[in-house]
Write a structure and sequence with these properties.
The chain is of the alpha/beta class and 321 residues long. The protein has helices spanning 32-48, 61-68, 82-91, 104-107, 111-121, 144-154, 174-182, 186-193, 209-213, 298-319, and strands at 6-8, 20-24, 51-58, 96-101, 125-131, 157-161, 198-204, 218-221, 231-238, 245-252, 264-269, 280-291. Strand 5, helix 6 and strand 6 form a beta-alpha-beta unit. The radius of gyration is 22 Å and the shape is elongated.
């Protein structure tokens, strides 16, 4: 993690004398399109002597409005939890992250008040980068022209950036990443993200059934409405030893043993045994093996797990990882 990183949850900041170069967005996944934006922020920050800054929201505005309207089917899935988002933003050279609670008060804030409260008084903004379709304020009433007009009088410049496309001319977006993850297309997701998809979390206690069956697992809670397809994956586990550990993992609700359970990531290490309870780890997804299944009994499930582990070993033998 970037040692210069500061995280704020309220505005104005307590140290508001620090001028900022700002970009605003949800940044779910911090994909290659986001990375182009963040690179531009870092470059301009260095040129102008400003603090490279991201303002982001929790929950996602679409999630907030879907909940308020009683339309849960309109809530977007999540590529990254907040920890993974912050980690990815920091890796892109961002030194300051403002996590704004999206609530009714923010939704009702007039566009001009959003600029004054968040950018002028909140962040001492001197330079702002947003997409050409950026909208803000009550009923999305604010546009780029208003930003430029207010910025001219308040001392900050406004720059816009168009959508970023991949080598095939397709727009790189969080929606595209979600679609790839939903069908288990990790190759496409990695192409869009610029890295392999991963989930981090603290290892929690499970029911210890895996240990009884001969396949002990590291159990990790996943983001709400996780975008990744439920199923079994070849994985690498980071943060528990000096090197990444080979593994196979199940992502899902465990229908055979827990009919009402929440989504859990259970990773079995292929050639390592260690006590990891409470430790923070990151599970990197390498290949989708199969969908989650409900088995008729535990022996059938155990045989399926053994086959999953064999296929994971074959993967690592083939790829030399």
């Amino acid at each position: 993690m970037n040692p210069l990183l500061r995280i704020y949850r309220t505005l104005p900041r307590f140290d508001n004398d620090r001028p900022s170069a700002v970009t605003i967005g949800n940044f779910d996944g911090v994909h290659r399109g986001h990375q182009a934006i963040l690179s531009r922020v870092s470059e301009e920050s260095a040129r102008r002597g400003l603090i490279p800054t991201v303002m982001t929201f929790t929950p996602h505005p679409r999630t907030y409005f879907a909940r308020r309207g009683g339309r849960p089917e309109l809530m977007p899935t999540q590529i990254s939890g907040l920890r993974d988002k912050v980690w990815a933003l920091a890796r892109q050279g961002i030194h300051q992250i403002i996590i704004v609670r999206f609530n009714q008060a923010l939704a009702d804030l007039a566009a001009i008040d959003f600029i004054e409260h968040c950018l002028v008084r909140g962040l001492n903004a001197r330079w702002l980068l947003v997409g050409t379709d950026f909208r803000y304020g009550h009923k999305r009433g604010g546009d780029i022209e208003l930003l430029r007009r207010v910025g001219h009088g308040s001392g900050f410049a406004v720059e816009t950036i168009a959508n970023i496309a991949d080598s095939d001319g397709r727009r790189i977006s969080s929606s595209e990443v979600r679609t790839a993850l939903a069908v288990g297309d990790l190759e496409r997701a990695s192409h869009l993200l610029g890295r392999n998809y991963s989930i981090s979390g603290h290892v929690v206690h499970g029911r210890r059934l895996g240990r009884t069956l001969g396949f002990p697992t590291l159990n990790i809670h996943v983001p709400a409405r996780c975008a990744a397809r439920s199923g079994v994956y070849v994985v690498r586990v980071h943060g528990l030893s000096a090197r990444a550990l080979d593994g196979v993992a199940s992502l899902g609700v465990r229908p055979t043993v827990d009919g009402a359970g929440g989504v859990l990531l259970e990773a079995h290490l292929l050639d390592s045994t260690l006590d990891a309870y409470g430790k923070l780890t990151r599970v990197e997804f390498l290949e989708f093996l199969r969908d989650e299944e409900k088995f008729p009994d535990l022996p059938t499930m155990t045989a399926a797990i053994a086959n999953d582990a064999r296929r994971a070993r074959d993967y690592f033998a083939l790829h030399g990882l």
